[in-house]
Write a structure and sequence with these properties.
239 residues; alpha+beta; 60s Ribosomal Protein L30, Chain: A; two-stranded antiparallel ribbon; 6 strands
Length: 239
């Protein structure tokens, strides 16, 4: 009898020891899972905070660029107004547009006399503002861009737009044009670019042939590496 009861007692004791051990293991597993979840949540939070910080820094850089560009545009507008020279400046891009039909004869690259006179009024003021000692370091380049309408082949229009832009730059830097403030600095920064028909002016979704034939005078700001990275990221996102 004793041995029978001993066996029952021992068996009951073993089962009693098993359940506490199992619950300990289960609690440990749950604790590990909880720690993993907490770690993942903490890591995710750090990633979100890092992204928010990057976005904030990008916004500050963009605001700085836009603010500086608008400041340049305001200086130009004020200078032209003070000199009594009527020039329409795009308040968003800072570009000055010239109607190609007023600059050149049809299919020609030689500047008309009246446009030469207009350039003699505009360029000295433009150069005195953007390339003075205070601003010149912030200006990366001055661009003369030639544009055509879509009439004709792309390559023909590319050659025509490039030749017209080059004619303007050549005249501005020539002895015929004469001296003006910061001409030597402008010589280092100015470029002639032909855009062919790649950037037409659209009105109600259709190309305006007359407005598309144009020349634009514009400037680009110099950017440090951080600013360039932000703009590159934005261009990638837009693509």
């Amino acid at each position: 009898m004793n041995s029978k009861y001993d066996r029952l007692f021992k068996s009951s004791t073993k089962e009693g020891n098993f359940w506490p051990a199992f619950t300990d293991i289960l609690a440990t597993i749950l604790l590990v899972i909880l720690l993993i979840l907490i770690t993942l949540m903490f890591t995710k939070q750090q990633e979100l905070e890092g992204k928010e910080k990057d976005i904030q820094e990008q916004e500050e850089i963009i605001d700085s660029l836009v603010g500086y560009e608008r400041g340049m545009i305001e200086q130009l507008s004020k200078a032209f107004q003070e000199e009594g020279v009527k020039v329409e400046i795009d308040q968003e891009s800072g570009s000055i547009k010239f109607d190609s039909d007023l600059l050149f004869d049809y299919d020609q690259t030689a500047l008309k006399p009246e446009f030469k006179q207009q350039l003699k009024q505009i360029i000295p003021i433009y150069s005195s503002v953007l390339l003075n000692e205070e601003n010149r370091a912030a200006i990366d380049s001055i661009l003369i861009e030639g544009h055509t309408d879509s009439d004709g082949t792309y390559m023909y229009n590319l050659e025509l737009s490039q030749a017209r832009a080059f004619s303007i730059v050549s005249y501005i830097l020539s002895d015929e044009f004469g001296d003006f403030p910061n001409k030597d600095i402008l010589r280092e920064k100015i470029s002639a670019i032909g855009r062919s028909e790649s950037m037409p002016i659209l009105v109600d979704g259709k190309e305006d042939m007359d407005q598309s034939r144009r020349v634009e005078l514009k400037f680009r700001l110099a950017m440090n590496e951080q600013m360039q990275d932000v703009l590159d990221d934005l261009n990638i996102q837009n693509d």
